[in-house]
Amino acid sequence: MKIERLSPDKIRIFLTFDDLSERGIQKEDMWQEIPKVHDLFTDMMDQAYNEVGFDATGPLAVEVFALPAQGMVVIVTRGKYDHHQYMGHIEDEIPEDVYEMEVTLEESDTIVYAFNDFEVLIEAAHVLQWNITKAGKLYNYNDKWVLYLEPADLDEDKHPSLIAVLAEFGESISTTEAVLEEYGKVIIPEDAIGVICHHFARQE
């Protein structure tokens, strides 16, 4: 479980499938109100408080992004109490530490990884070129190099090895293509892996 603070009221949590299987949770369970999912969420909030000081009191909007062969990205945004929701309750009876979750789930087949250093991306591209023929679009977004891969361009049987390489060199992100197109800059519009390998040599 990896936690990153995005703003004072928002965090991003990356859950691997190992994190889920250790708790007996399937991907489809994540939007259900079942005890083991509630326990997982409690653990996430405890860890978020301990690691990044994120206080989960108040209503929370929870977005769950399922990523192929990688795990899940959970975006938690803290809101404020809407006292109109508690009509009929005595205000003093509203517990301060209770959080109200609104969970939405999106599933994406795309594979998106960010790299802080272009040299690291070059190294990853040279390793990947043996598994990928012509695929990938490269963006510059938030001062990072973002490699965007469409599943239709990839051999499904090679997904696990592909993910293993990408996870070694980069960081999985849930940014959509629409966001990358609007707020990022397209550096290589197609065949990014091949273009990088052709123009840039690996470091010895």
Strand content: 25-35%
The number of E-state strands comes to 10
Distance between the termini: 33 Å
DSSP summary: helix tally: 6
Q: Could you explain the architecture of this structure?
A:
This is Adaptor protein. It comes from Paenibacillus crassostreae. Belongs to the MecA family. With 204 residues, the protein is of the alpha+beta class. It contains six helices and ten strands, in the order E-E-H-H-E-E-E-E-H-E-E-H-E-H-E-H. Helix 3 runs antiparallel to helix 4 and helix 3 (118-128) crosses helix 6 (192-199). It starts with a strand and ends in a 5-residue tail after the last helix. The relative contact order is 0.14. The model is unreliable at 81-99 (pLDDT under 50).
Give the structure's gist in a few sentences.
The chain is of the alpha+beta class and 204 residues long.
List the helices and strands and how they pair.
Layout: E1 2-7, E2 10-16, H1 17-21, H2 35-52, E3 60-67, E4 71-78, E5 101-107, E6 111-115, H3 118-128, E7 137-141, E8 144-149, H4 159-169, E9 171-172, H5 177-183, E10 185-188, H6 192-199
Parallel strand pairs: 3-5
Antiparallel strand pairs: 1-2, 2-4, 3-4, 6-8, 6-9, 7-8, 7-10
Helix pairs in contact: 3-4, 3-6
